[in-house]
Fold:
Amino acid sequence: MEALSFFALIVDSAIRLSVPLIFAALAGLYSERSGVFDIGLEGKMLAGAFAAGTVAALTGSPWVGLFGAIVISVVFAVVHGLASITYRGNQIVSGVAINIVAAGLTVLLGQTWFQQGGRTPQLPSEARFLPINLPFAETLAEVPIVGQIYSEVISGHNILVYIAIAAVFATHWVVYSSRFGLRLRAVGENPSAVDTAGISVVWLRYRAVIICGVLCGFAGAYLAIAQSAGFIKDMSAGKGFIALAALIFANWRPRAVLLTCLLFGFLDAVAIRLQGANVPGIGEVPVQFMQALPYILTVVLLAGFIGKATPPKAGGVPYVKER
Amino acid sequence: MSTASDQLPRWITLGVIPFLNLLAAFVVSGLVVLLIGEDPIEAVGILIWGAFGFGEGVGYTLYYTTNFVFTGLAFAVAFHCGLFNIGAEGQAYLGGLGAALVCLHLDFLPLPLIALLAIAAAALFGAGWAFVPGYLQAKRGSHIVITTIMFNFIASALMVYLLVNVMAPPGKMAPETRTFDESARLPFMHAALEWIGIDIPQSPLNLTFFLALLCCLLVWLLIWRTRLGYEIRTVGISPSAAAYAGISTARLTVIAMAISGALAGFLAVNEIMGVQHRLLLDFTAGYGFVGIAVALMGRSHPVGIFFAALLFGALYQGGAELSFEKPKITREMVVVIQGLVILFAGALEHMFRPQITALYHRLAPSPKPSEA
Structure:
């Protein structure tokens, strides 16, 4: 019983920690499946978080805050699109630039507008996304195992958590069952074939990049106005890169993204719980090792020792029409 | 639409276009300054004065320049081989570990010997950290951009662990090593010049500056005057041509990455042995990422890199002075300007090209094939 509720607690916090990863990894999925590499997930998430914190503080509404996050994140995404689609610049450099601009601008503007060392004001609870208790959670809590899991793990999250899970399955449908998804996959593998079929490579990629921006906005809003009560300097703290790692680990497939993000979230939750604790048989596991584990696993995967990562073929290459 | 292959004279591709890109970045930065309610023209004045207006400022500018030269060269060497090493941050971090180990444990040796050993250790550790992604790229086809990003984070976790649990002296709360002995510190420039009777204001500028200049020369020799450099450039321009010529892409990938990592490691010589005199968290402070911009702006040529590094060094120091004079413009303004410069000079570098090409052809109707 004790073990079960401890486990439920860890899974519960694993879900909370994996939500921004899920949004950001799905964002990267759309972009990279279309052939546009995006290492700027981190920056878009951070900019989105700042926008969400600012707008929610000014309007008092989490939904308007979410909208603000999406708008700003899409603006950054379109800049990335301009650089990598229209002007055929280097997509990696563009991503690096977006990360740096976002890191600087959020603190600079935050300090100018609110004078709280780069933070946005502490949000009252009505300006945040609060946990929702699913029906019968209270009553079912008494039922052993099933009821406990229902009330502690499944119920009691904020709306964005459920949206994230739904987004995974929606993405799966879009990518594998819709016309847009077919073209999206095609343009990332062989853009000239798509072009020959009379479909605009440029417009297709722009749509993918904009969807990427929308989802990064969700990720940022989750950080600033669901998980915390306001924006804090550098609050994305490398999550955009873990999401990138998760995307690669999941081999650019939506449902695998969900599992990988849950795994990485779980590692994070365990790392927080195990801080300084002794694991039987191993001794004290350094918390830094747990934090580095997602990156280490991704490198091991990329090295081809567990499975094989096969990125979209045309990824990172600007498309030039035949002359 | 015109493409990048349009014939333009060198003074346009190497002069006018980078200038316009830089100008665009500064104009947008000016708008940001306006947005936070300050006068951009006045800000530029303070920035330039802060960077070059007085001796101490110049010292700081050159000290920052030293860091950017190393990370810029590091990126450029890998880039000549067609590799995108964005792991300079992690490689420099590990380089710091190497330098610190020498300075902490071999400080009974005379200073010149310690300095040489520390430089070698910084290079070795940096190269080692770059070797793994290089090897994985060469032998297993793992994408170097992703592995170097991952290695940055792994380096960061490793260093936190080492500094908190292993290297911090007992009883000290701060995650940093003890301060190095006097004998294991590189002399500051003002101290060194005082010995030969020249008096300059105090600043963190130290003898590593000469190492940076030397590295510029060595990289130039390596890339354009040696067989290895020729092979590196061949692989970078056309891996298939290199393969036909009997050059092993795998071997050169590993070598170029190791050299790149070693150059990044030298950043630690400047920071750890020259200025901080102890190993501490996050001393790399984003220099590794800015190195990408430095190399791109400098067109991966050591002379270009030096001047690009000087520009970023001036921005750093001038920005510090600016945030001192104008508290509303915080230190992060420099970060924003850096990001914008990377964006406009790197990612959007072709933005003005079509217009410039059209203008050039209108003004010079019969351009001769460039002979220069």
In short: The radius of gyration of chain B is 22 Å. Residues 319 and 334 of chain B are 6 Å apart (CA to CA).
